[in-house]
Amino acid sequence: MATIADLPDIPQYTIKAVSIQTGIRPVTLRAWERRHEVLNPQRADNHYRLYSERDVAILRWLKSRVDAGVSISNAVSELRAMMNQGIMPEVTPTAPQKVTRQPIHQKEELVKFLYQAFLAHNEIRASELFKQAVEEYDLIPLFMEILVPTLTQIGEDWYLGKITIATEHFASNFLKGKLLGLFQTYPIRKNSSYILVGCAPFEQHELGALMLSTLLRAQGYRVEYLGPDVPIEDLVDFASYEHPAMIILSASSSSSAMELKNAQQRLAMLRRPPLFCYGGRGFDNHPEIRQKVAGIYLGNTLEKGLEKINELLADSAGKPNHRNRIQ
Ligand code: B12
């Protein structure tokens, strides 16, 4: 029988395809990867995971062990022990998978249903939809293609007077709670680069900063999330004894963005100055502010920001433990 090593290692399958092929839910695949370092799938240009046939075979083998009653951590240890001895497991024969779970919701549907749940102030429904979205999609599509469009719709309808401020507050507070919960599910890695993320003074729009914090923690960085409206003096004081490698502040309005004018200068006076970075729509909509605010502009999307942060911290020898770990 063929062994797993005989299979091609060309990255080609998305997490959704692998889930269907193996019967392992995307949320479980990500948890195995995070907690047991099972695989480190490559990434497409859009950061989505891409698995090879060999990866799929490894996952099937692990699942066959788990189905036989072995815990996932023991199954992973068995696999490692075999591989250390140069033995590759045989390819597990597979019957076509019966997909018994509910069909996956398309992202557009999730946006529509989540929006409707917010309009109805239906927290139970919103929680179910959020859970489904987290289980089915990686963090970047979850944020960029489900949560951001839902919030944009809410913002437009609030602006047009179609929905009340109460509904907008319900939706944004619900998502803040869920995002914080998600952020806290990732391990705090003490021996990785220490990054502080928050919002510029007077800035209340914090969900972008919270999403970025979650992505960075998922990549293995040690991230502390500081929330909205962080006073610069206080931040400088904190940085003087905590020595973060990087401070990132988000600003949605031009006035909050301008509050960062002297931040870099203040931080540069510290004995071990952190890298000072910023982003957010205040800097995207008013590019001229970037000329006035010293520090590093991280780009106009979360993906670009992540890439830039990885580059900056790799240059300063502060790589996270887990390369390319983007959920
Ligand atoms: C929720 C919300 C609020 C909540 C925020 C709650 C919270 N805990 O965050 C509250 C009620 C506090 C609020 C207040 C206000 N809001 Co408001 N709000 C929104 C809403 C509906 C969603 C914002 C959001 O979270 N979007 C999702 C996040 C993820 O998107 P984002 O912030 O744009 O961030 C993206 C990028 O900018 C980037 N990014 C963000 N930060 C960073 C950082 C780095 C380093 C990088 C690389 C990238 C990056 O990544 C994100 C994903 O693409 C928007 C509508 C909209 N279109 O967004 C209005 C909106 C932003 N608000 C608006 C306004 C006017 C206000 C108020 C001035 C209203 C008022 N009169 O009081 C106040 C200002 C408060 C303040 N001082 O900051 C306007 C802004 C208009 C403009 N021209 O800029 C909008 C667009 C609504 C509208 N359609 O008019 N708001």
Summarize the structure.
The chain is of the alpha/beta class and 327 residues long. It contains 15 helices and seven strands.
Keywords for this entry:
Multidrug-efflux Transporter Regulator, Chain: A, Domain 2; Methyltransferase, Methionine Synthase (B12-binding Domains), Chain A, domain 1; binds cobalamin; 3 domains; 15 helices; two-stranded antiparallel sheet; disordered C terminus; five-stranded parallel beta sheet; 327 residues; alpha/beta; Rossmann fold; single chain
Question: Care to describe what's here?
Answer:
With 327 residues, this protein is of the alpha/beta class. The chain has 3 domains: 81 residues, Multidrug-efflux Transporter Regulator, Chain: A, Domain 2 (Orthogonal Bundle), CATH 1.10.1660.10; 78 residues, Orthogonal Bundle (Methyltransferase, Methionine Synthase (B12-binding Domains), Chain A, domain 1), CATH 1.10.1240.10; 128 residues, Cobalamin-binding domain (Rossmann fold), CATH 3.40.50.280. 53% of the residues lie in helices and 8% in strands. The chain is built from 15 helices and 7 strands. The radius of gyration is 22 Å and the shape is globular. The structure holds cobalamin. The site of cobalamin has 33 residues, from helix 7, helix 8, helix 9, strand 5 and helix 15.
Named once each, the bound ligands are: cobalamin
Could you tell me the number of beta strands?
7
Structural class: alpha/beta
Can you summarize the main beta sheet?
5 strands, parallel
Residue stretches low in confidence (pLDDT < 50, at least 5 long) are: 95-100, 318-327
The CATH H-level homologous superfamily of the largest domain:
Cobalamin-binding domain
The CATH level-2 architecture of the largest domain is identified as 3-Layer(aba) Sandwich
What is the string of helix and strand elements? HHEEHHHHHHEHEHEHHEHHEH
If you compute it from the alpha carbons, what radius of gyration comes out, rounded to the nearest whole angstrom? 22 Å
Count of domains: 3
Classified by CATH, the class of the largest domain is Alpha Beta
Number of helices: 15
